[in-house]
Amino acid sequence: QGSELSGWAMGRWTYEGIDLNHNFADLNTALWDAEDNDLVPHEFPNHYIPIPEYYTFTNATVAPETRAVIDWMQQYPFVLSANLHGGELVVTYPFDMTRTYWKAQELTPTADDGVFRWLATVYATSNLAMASEERRLCHYDDFARFGNIINGANWHTVPGSMNDFSYLHTNCFEITVELSCDKFPHASELPAEWENNRESLLLYMEQVHRGIKGVVRDSDTEQGIANAIISVDGINHDVRT
């Protein structure tokens, strides 16, 4: 159909008709309801939020690909991730779902908004296509005015996104990279797309070295403590060792 004529929806659904980008469990609503009722974090956790029971039923509309990714995330303690999309030039960061359920767009930051904005900026400022002075609009949104980053929910709401799920169910901080105006570049264009993103990917991965690192140990035995909860003053989102 032409490199930029296929539209947003092309290739979005699986054979079963499931949009994998909206297929993860919605943990946001449970957290926000608990926050509104002053239950966080003493009666309801602000991290490692459990998957709701309805989502685990065999007849739930959950793709096998989604279940496989969740199993993978639970098996390995990832701390940094990015998922790659096409069709725009922008980096989005959580939350992807608007807190006001009936709004299509609304700035909805996480408790770690500063970290997410930094991660998104690292990628966007080192991406050759995004940083180019000759950068053109992909469609109608001028993301260059915002440094080519945006809060996902402030662009368009995505309930059940992988980014929000990663942040609320695991220790992993995840962003979405819309890495090309062209959702289906021709084979001859792939080397240029790689050059646009190579340094961004490397710099992004290097961000795992930021922040607090170490081992939580028992003061008597010096043995490491599994699942120790680490809290930072002023940030209502804990992490676990």
TrEMBL record:
Q: Give the record's GO CC terms.
A: extracellular space
GO molecular function list: metallocarboxypeptidase activity; zinc ion binding
Under InterPro entries, the record lists: CARBOXYPEPT_ZN_2, Peptidase_M14, Peptidase_M14_domain
Q: Which UniProt keywords apply?
A: Carboxypeptidase, Hydrolase, Metal-binding, Metalloprotease, Protease, Zinc
Q: Where are the transmembrane segments?
A: none
Q: Is Zinc one of the keywords UniProt gives this record? A: yes
The answer to whether the entry has keyword Protease is yes
PROSITE patterns documented for this protein: CARBOXYPEPT_ZN_2, PEPTIDASE_M14
Domain annotation Peptidase M14: ranges: 1-208
User: Catalytic positions?
Assistant: 178
Q: What GO biological process terms does the UniProt entry carry, in alphabetical order?
A: proteolysis
Which Pfam families does the UniProt entry name for this protein?
Peptidase_M14
- Names of the cofactor(s): Zn(2+)
Q: What protein family does this chain belong to? A: Belongs to the peptidase M14 family.
Q: What is this protein called?
A: CPXM1 carboxypeptidase
Species for this entry: Ardeotis kori
Record lineage: Eukaryota, Metazoa, Chordata, Craniata, Vertebrata
Q: Its gene?
A: Cpxm1
